[in-house]
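My current task is to audit a protein record that another person submitted. Please read both lines and tell me whether the tokens look consistent with the sequence. Do not assume that whoever made the record got everything right. I have pasted the whole thing underneath without changing anything:

===
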Amino acid sequence: MVYMNAQPGCTDPQALNFDPTALENNGTCFYPPTTYVPTQIAELPAAIPEASGAEFFDGQLWVHQDGGAGPIIHKLDTLTGAALQTYSLTSIENADWEDLAEDANYLYIGDFGNNGGNRTDLRIYKINKSVLLADTATAEVINFSFSDQVNFSNEYHAHNFDCEAFILLGDSLHIFSKRWLDFKTQRYTVPTTPGTHIAQLRDTLDVGFLTAAADVSDSGTVLLLGYDTLSVTSLWMLWDYPGTNVFAGNKRKISLGTAINMSQAEGIAFSSTTTGFICTEKLLFFPQRLLRFDIGQWLEGPSSTDGSNSDRQFFVSPNPFSEFLSIDFQGVVKMGDSVSVMSMDGRIMVNAPLRSGQNSLDTAKLPRGNYALIVKDGDEISVEKLVKQ
């Protein structure tokens, strides 16, 4: 009898590089381009044009606004978007509130918006839920600074130490930076104990957008929400990671649309293990909105289309490849059809319009490794696994 030792690999059947022999997920899964449109519930009230943080607890959705709106939280009707109740937390101030997090006993308010990169009073308010809505409610304060920040000059939207997102995971608060210079996010951790702390840099993820919100489900799925300079809104799903190292597990990017349907997305909150709410700010003439999301389809069973099936309309050679790829497409080309090479971290490395017959892609500058060929044919997306030698 022959025994085979299972090696670490991609354990997600939806991934392009799923390894059925792998028992330990090593974070190498990569996925086809994914698009999803959240369901709009309603426009938010005119009195809440800048809902920048959200959290769902005690069966209710709570939101707050940016600095300038005062230390106020709103309880929203999740069917109509109406403000059911509004509470003023007069014992604290709102310099620039950006996100909410919670545990069983406390609500955490992130007063760490840092557009200029020059704040030296970054803080998180910690309020006991049992007295949250009382006029006499007081807050403990978690003051922090970033471990790698040495420049505190005012560089409006031209630095890497803005912050709008955090979660509570394990015994720490995990803070995700909003990096204006490179559109990455860095994860920092601080303890939940009041006092003055150094937010320790843990790792970095190239999200490709300005990170505006985060939340974590009861099952541990982390969502990062953000948008780019073209107002394209996206979501990163992070799950099946070791311990609390959320960037070390599965990572899937989902495009949610543009300002037309999303305005400026600023808050996200789970209401169950796979569903929840997104709140958006007013952007130009696009209204503030309340939307519902459901990510269950990407956590349950296979869903990707693999181009290796027998009825595909294209053939690719050589594979493994080196200097070029040749794609022979046998179908009828429509407006917007394309062929792309995607890296394992979801970046489009080569892209060209799709043509009937022979298509040639220059891949000479791509580093060696695993890729996916993405053929967009109308509403269909087909995928072929590739290796560059």
